[in-house]
UniProtKB/TrEMBL annotation, chains A, B:
EC numbers on record: 2.6.1.42
Similarity-based family: Belongs to the class-IV pyridoxal-phosphate-dependent aminotransferase family.
PANTHER family for the chain: BRANCHED-CHAIN-AMINO-ACID AMINOTRANSFERASE, SUBGROUP IIII AMINOTRANSFERASE
UniProt source species: Salibacterium halotolerans
Top class in the EC scheme: transferase
Protein name: Branched-chain-amino-acid aminotransferase
Reaction it catalyzes: L-valine + 2-oxoglutarate = 3-methyl-2-oxobutanoate + L-glutamate; L-leucine + 2-oxoglutarate = 4-methyl-2-oxopentanoate + L-glutamate; L-isoleucine + 2-oxoglutarate = (S)-3-methyl-2-oxopentanoate + L-glutamate
NCBIfam families for the chain: ilvE_II, PRK13357.1
């Protein structure tokens, strides 16, 4: 797939928000990348345009049947100078995996990385320079065909929008542990469904339970499997890790959980450091037993938005397990420090994860 | 909830499509109903406007996390004169049930029935008069707040759009039996998820399997439960009924299947006629055994679009069960004839299901 990207720039950029008070995904940069799809032309009309509203027919299939995929990644100002991305090819490869399940036509990942770099270059003065700030990147595809029949659309729109963000969590200290409510009535997904994809419907279905957790005084939800209501799946919209008796355990990719890129990076880094990491089924009972035995040393979530989110308290039925005295543990801290360090150029990129913006500009 | 509905009509209506060649949900009438929601005002600015594209911010939550609900019902030209609706209050009540699961604010069903009647009155010359034609009505709510955080939106848009339709199936004879592929790898939903709601994501997730069924030469998919891959859930986007040895069986409402209004009407009508109707779990093995024993007399799907859709062939693993010699059975035929008769005024409304448009106009 080769596309020329036409570029139409704003004459005057928007005023920038206060970078010390950035909510997640609330402010958007001056430009966006857009590309359309139809059956005759495939993906066509790749363009960078001013950020602006879309005109959508009320019958657009997205509004009715939700056929869509999205991704989330970040660009960082490197402390060594320049702008860098973190494993962007993995996001666009995963978008194609999601698209395959959702009957959406695939897109050349290399082309999208290149398009993203061009967009970032144009909006480069929006990329935050302070620690813990970054430019969140949201690529997404929606079914735009105007029709009410339940079928794969014949028309789509792919967009990339950019939003400067601070910490995902409201608190300024990223590493303060979160409290988790273990849900045993509602479920997030099940094998044979679309839990492994980043598609809109997975997130809509989770809102009621997130609300329930908050009403009960907890920050996030820990999901159990739909079949036995026993095996741990994900936390909120993050993958989850347990450090038990000196070893690291995370649920295996089973078709219902997301193949997180931070998850993958954490596993790779832990193994590089010499830890035993087990990707396998782990039940809530095993976690509880480890806590009883005094060997549940750390629990943490992983995701692009939060990077590492330590878990301090775990509410399961009538019990509340307090983990590591509700403090961030050393593995959580080292992972956060190293991964954000690599992302921001403060730490050597020992695993070859970062992609500089400049290479593409020559 | 009381709202004034402001009305802005087109000066000149669109050209109407050829009513003898109507695809499902492809043509829309001159007007639509729209209402907005925000946290300060609740639902506000109820209006009937020309049918026109929406301006949507690229960050609108619907595009990313799919928070939405919809309904489907029909208006008919009665053979006794006038226009009538079929159990519209049930659709708007069910929309609130879906909304509750999807964290969307509820709407007064009586107000929406009234709003729909006003909209239908304005677009009344779009309502088909021929047999088997009707005006399909699509109410839906989408999350419009521009934000990328995973949370219930603070802004929504409710719309009702109208589309003249012929038969849902391409063939002119509605009652020609469909062939069904029984899926045992992918699933539609599971208890604890959102299968009982009409929300966009349920339909997006089904597309791949519908495609698989078509590739194998079958019209639609029969879904099994996600846990034991054994109990029958729905067919395509319809509920399903089995006539076995003189009794009628349909899967019970279990949290993962839709509480279909045609399903409810079929059960009520069958009981009115004196049939034994059982709402219970039914396994694919029981269906197969009934076929082997020569007592699988009829199978049919029920839904607003098709009303009754007889099933002639059922593909399950290596076997194909042919039902009633691949002919429409008498119960399927009587149900179709009676329900469409009631809907179109050809048959007395013995169960009080229809709502005339005129009452509201006084």
């Amino acid at each position: 797939m080769e596309h020329d990207i036409t570029i139409k720039q704003v004459t005057t950029g928007k005023a920038k928000p206060d970078y010390n008070h950035l909510s997640f995904g609330k402010y958007f940069t001056d430009h966006m990348f857009v590309m359309d799809y139809n059956e005759e032309d495939g993906w066509f009309d790749a363009r960078i345009t001013p950020y602006e509203p879309l005109l959508m027919d009320p019958s657009s299939l997205m509004f009715h049947y939700g056929q869509s995929v999205f991704e989330g990644l970040k660009a960082y100002t490197s402390q060594k100078g320049g702008i860098q991305l973190f494993r962007p090819e993995k996001n666009f490869n995963r978008m194609n995996i999601s698209s395959d399940r959702m009957n959406i036509p695939e897109v050349d990942p290399d082309f999208l990385v290149d398009a993203l770099k061009q967009l970032l270059h144009i909006d480069r003065d929006w990329i935050p320079v302070e620690e813990r700030q970054s430019l969140y990147i949201r690529p997404f595809i929606i079914a735009t065909e105007p029709a009410l029949s339940v079928k794969p659309a014949s028309q789509y729109k792919l967009m990339i929008i950019l939003s400067p963000v601070g910490s995902y969590y409201a608190q300024s200290d990223q590493m303060s542990p979160v409290s988790i409510y273990v849900e045993d009535e509602y479920v997030r997904s099940v094998k044979g469904l679309v839990g492994f994809t980043k598609t809109a419907g997975n997130y809509a279905a989770s809102l009621k339970v997130q609300q329930k957790a908050e009403d009960l005084g907890y920050d996030q939800v820990l999901w159990l499997d739909a079949i036995e209501k026993k095996y741990i799946e994900e936390v909120g919209s993050m993958n989850i890790f347990f450090k038990i008796n000196g070893e690291i355990i995370t649920p295996a990719l089973n078709g219902s959980i997301l193949d997180g890129i931070t998850r993958d990076s954490v596993i790779e880094l832990l193994r590089y450091w010499g830890w035993n990491v087990h990707e396998r089924r782990i039940s809530i009972d095993e976690v509880k037993q480890a806590h009883t035995d005094g060997v549940l040393e750390e629990v943490f979530g992983t995701g692009t938005a939060a990077v590492i989110s330590p878990v301090g308290r775990l509410k399961w039925k009538d019990e509340e397990l307090v983990i590591n005295d509700n403090q961030t543990g050393p593995v959580s801290y080292d992972l956060y420090d190293t991964i954000t360090g690599i992302q921001t150029g403060a730490t050597d990129d020992i695993l070859g994860w970062t992609v500089p913006l400049q290479e593409q500009e020559t």
